[in-house]
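Subject: sequence -> structure tokens, single chain

Hey, anyone have a minute? Need the predicted structure for the following. Not urgent.
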Amino acid sequence: MGWLFLFAVLFLMVFLVLDSNRTRMVAVGILVFIAGVVAVYLLFLSEAEQRAVPPAADDRLKDTRELERKAALVREAIKPQEVAINDQQFGPRTQQYRGSDGKLTERPNLFSWAFSGKVANLNTEYAVRDVVFRVRLFSCPDFIAGDIDLPTMEVKCVTIGDRRLALYDLGIAPAGSASFAETVTFDNQPKPGNWRYWVETISVTAKID
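Reply:
Had a minute. Here:
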């Protein structure tokens, strides 16, 4: 340390400059007293700096791991199959046009779709915060009638729309439900013929306090 070097120089000067042994002893005593005061001050300063040091690295690591654990729980606490859509409705919205008689008339808008229902949380422990659905639109041959399952659609029909639809901040309590109504459009969607649709849940975010 620099202060130790300084006191060593002063100590040497005392013996070189002063002739009397008694005077030298007095000067050395003064130097020793000053050195003690400086040492106590530096010790106090060191302890103050240690108290001001941020949390140790292992504490920060522990906090980081806790945040990672909570984030994983938010993503994995509720499985997609634990969310259902009740009272599900999907169909073209309506648009107005003016007929040959000049009157406004409504007709289906096959490029804008209304999707509504109730999101049901089947999990009995955690609340649902966000849900992401995959919505697909198919154009099927005219001979297909009635409801058909997804494997049949994928084989016999043409996919003309495929998108993600996210519902945020639902706050659905365990075993509860919440209504929703959304407008769905598909990029570059051609005009459908005998249309069918399919909706599936692909991810769920739990609400963890």
